[in-house]
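Q: Joint fold for the lines below.
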Amino acid sequence: MLSRKVTRPIAPNISFPENTNDDHYYAIQRGHARFAIYFLASVAFLFLSVFIAAGQGSISLSFQDVFSGVLLCGEHSQTCGLTAVEQQIIWDIRLPRIFMALLTGAGLSITGAILQSVTRNPLADPYLFGISSGAALGAVVAMSLMAALSATVFSVSVVSVTIPIISVTTGALLGGALSVFLMLLLAGKSAAQVDKLLLSGVAVSFMLSAFTSLVIYYSSPETATTLLFWLMGSFSGADWGDLILPLVIISLGSCVFFLFGRWLLVMQSGEESAITLGVPVHQLRLGMLILCSVITAVLVAEVGGIGFVGLMIPHICRLLVGAQIHRVLAMSLVVGGSFMIWVDIVANSLLQDQVLPVGIVTSALGSVFFFIILKNRQAS
Amino acid sequence: MPDVHSQIDIRSLSLKIAGTQVLEDISLAVAPGEFVGVIGPNGAGKSSLLKAVYGFKYSRGAQITGEVSVDGDFVGHYSRRALAQKIAVVLQEPIMPFELSVYDVIAMGLTPNKPLLSFITKDDRVDIMQAAEQVDLVHKLPQSFESLSGGEKQRALIARAIIQQPDILLLDEPTNHLDIRHQIEILDLVRQLQITSLVSVHDLNLAAAYCDRIVLLSKGKLVIDGTPEQVLTPEVIAEVFQVKAQVERVGANQLRVSYEMGGI
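A: Joint structure:
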């Protein structure tokens, strides 16, 4: 069924690309080369960022120290020039935190790229669709419930900490599912139309944010403070175990995104067009929405609310390598990862002896980014 | 049973959307290789007729009756993908929110014939190059689609349709918004492909020059279906378009329609 038909002799006298003098063919090849260069440079920068970030903090370590601490001698090894405490700081505190930042940036960016492409709207991101608000509401409800139910256990036992983490994740997942469900319900029969879907997403987003505020309002002062700080986003406190679920979900999600890349690309030329090219547009969009909400929910459960990344990074990647979806996805993963690592570095070092919530830094950068886009639009 | 000899077979097709009769009892058969033009005033149902052929899914409010079959099987029996392997559709210029290159846009035509998980092979690239050559856009391949002129965009979309290797080509007002030179260019191009084509056209002279057969729609009904000579008569034009027109024969077998202006 899928076998190619015999090529119709549309222009029998022309032979490409054997005609090696053709500049235009090479211009396309240059497009590939350009992507390869940008991608490899971004990967290199990501590695560099990890090492730089591992040296930053209250005890600052030199690049060589980090390098030998991570690469030359493994975890808990005593053979390199670092003290056991320094080893522990790198392996138990900084690296999990850095990788959490990396995963968050990569996950939110690729989610944004997918949402933008299935809705053909360059402003789409997990926040616009209410997915983040839903996940945040679910997580906040779970956290305040746990605080109310097991306040005594929470403060005494260390073992109980593992239970809340699981519950926050399930809460966030349920909240994310709720937001997608509400959005589809609100859009109703017009869910096939992207603009209606987006508008109902915005409506759901505001509604769920209002509920989140309500939950915080009725919480005890200590819980409210915790929730508010959590909502602003942070990578601190991450350990290796926290990384597993986001890593698995983001890897699986990315595989699915790359697999359906050809269809996603076709969708950029318009829904009707995509349908006539044999793409099951509605099913694809629904599937992608659900997958994006799962990724967002898992990340929100781990790190709280971090906005604008899903919107900014795909934009920047498109500027660098063009709108070819596979390229944008690959670049979004890498650039998003490094971006988040640097945001974390900035959030840690901006104020003396104080860590800024990551969400504040990304939102501030996001507004500047919007302003730059606006200026560029006006200029052109 | 659907007619096995015609490539497109439409039988008593009616379409009602929200109480409005969009198409009413239309029957039409298109033979393989035929170039059929659909003409009619605005809102006559030209686009709706094309949509019925490519199996457009209307929302639940729409009532559709009658049968549309392609290559001897009902359109509804085909999967989306199977239908896309048979029919290529050139819609009016799409708006691309992101900057895709002309190459990427033409390559989209590979979608129905390639498995989802596959790379663009050297053969595919040759196909893309040949299609671009066919529409004279090789020099524009690396450029962004949005940077093209209206006529070039239309040509790129036709190249995408060529890559699809369809048996049937549907074009919805491909000459809209184009100047006369580009209108001629586009229709010349489609004609050369020698694929069964159903094309909605506004300009009666162009329809007369390029179509083997013309189908005239008015208010959702098929008024007349025949050769350009049969369809384009002053009486018919006066009745359907409400314009006084003269039709004269130019050269061997070309018609010229001229309109009386200002005096209606």
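Q: Anything notable?
A: Chain B has one domain: 8-227. Chain B has a mean pLDDT of 87.
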